[in-house]
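tool=predict chain=A
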Amino acid sequence: MNYFRKMRGTTKSPPLVSASEIAWSWIGAFAGIAAVALFHYRVLAESDLVMIIGSFGASAVLLYGAIRSPLAQPRNLMGGHILSAVVGVSAYKLLGAHMWLASSVAVATAIAVMHATKTLHPPGGATSLIAVIGSQKIHELGYFYVLMPAGLGALIMLVVALLVNNIPAGRRYPEFWV
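tool=predict ok
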């Protein structure tokens, strides 16, 4: 019975955030994703390169909507995406003939690596999975996937987070760098 009691939770739901906080989260997410998407669709449109990946949507939630979370800090953002991309590409290259195995190894190993390096960033799990289950275009990038889109895209979103999150007096980003 103790096992099932744990599933009830221990705290109440967090309070609502202010309209100002909602607005700044929206502005930051719009600007961050717009910057990455503009680079993708304007600069890389004629190439086989990719700049925007689904995991950046989840990073936007943390970077602009949960700016004080340890998971949203620069070390976690950059390290989480970069290390997870290395893990994901490696899993695909080693185990790609068995996609179910490559997928599960990529995500599980990415989590372990992020824990070990103090860079836990939940969207990193998606970055590693995208390296495995992504399109042929993603697979053709090989380890370049680590630099672009994972590294450069995260860096662009970080710059936007630094600029936007520090405009209002009541917001400060980051909480820590290393």
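Helices lie at 2-5, 19-43, 55-65, 74-95, 99-116, 123-133, 136-141, 144-165. The chain has a mean pLDDT of 96.
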